[in-house]
Amino acid sequence: MLSVTPITAFSDNYIWLLRQDTSQAVCVVDPGDATPVIDWLEREGLDLGCILITHHHHDHTGGLRELIKRYAPRVIGPDNPEIEGIDERVGDGDEVRVMGRLFEVFALPGHTLDHIGFFAAGIPPLLFGGDVLFSGGCGRLFEGTPEQMYGSLTRLASLPEETLVFAAHEYTQANLAFARAADPDNADVETAEQECRQARELDRPTLPSTLGRERRINPFLRCDSTGVRQAAAAHGDTHSSQATFTTLRAWKDAF
């Protein structure tokens, strides 16, 4: 059986650790810092067999050099020469088997141009989407266009509603504060805020979320809803779902 554990890094990053019960080797996703990963492995007496990388930002790749030197894991990531240490470069439609699960690679440009995600169908479906889809929000547009990010989110929104969404940051509380402004009549957002507040007061992660939940509470996945369009109309163009997304993203940046 596959388990997924969050390792906290920096102020709000999650390095997700995948482990099969019968394996002494584990896999980590986006290790921006090697130290907490090494500490976890030494405490549990395990080895690092694989690393998945979603994009080139340092808070997702900064631990690569030390982890490679120490454990010599298989490193899978986007075809971007800026990222040193990847030995298996993958792109849209590729498949990789990790910890007994078959993951499909999705190209998810928007946050960065090289951004990819890893999706495993099955029970339950798993999505490691880096900085594209957060609980209650989405990533900033550092390199890509609003059109690219909207396309990436639309693609993810089509996945099964039971898909577990393992985002790379604990941004949920701030995202839901914006969601309340962007979708003011949505009772699901209010409920999610209460659940999020309770979890954070106990220092518990608000992740993973599920795709079904995100469709109910995440304004960036609800650009075709009347309530979101009405709220966004005061901040820009909402003549289409894509235009509404563009307006929402700019509004969130200034929120």
TrEMBL record:
Positions with a binding annotation for Zn(2+) 2: 59-60, 131, 169
One Gene Ontology MF term: hydroxyacylglutathione hydrolase activity
CDD domains on file: hydroxyacylglutathione_hydrolase_MBL-fold
Keywords, in A-Z order: Hydrolase, Metal-binding, Zinc
Cofactor entry: Zn(2+)
Function: Thiolesterase that catalyzes the hydrolysis of S-D-lactoyl-glutathione to form glutathione and D-lactic acid.
Name the UniProt record assigns to this protein: Hydroxyacylglutathione hydrolase
Lineage: Bacteria, Pseudomonadati, Pseudomonadota, Gammaproteobacteria, Oceanospirillales
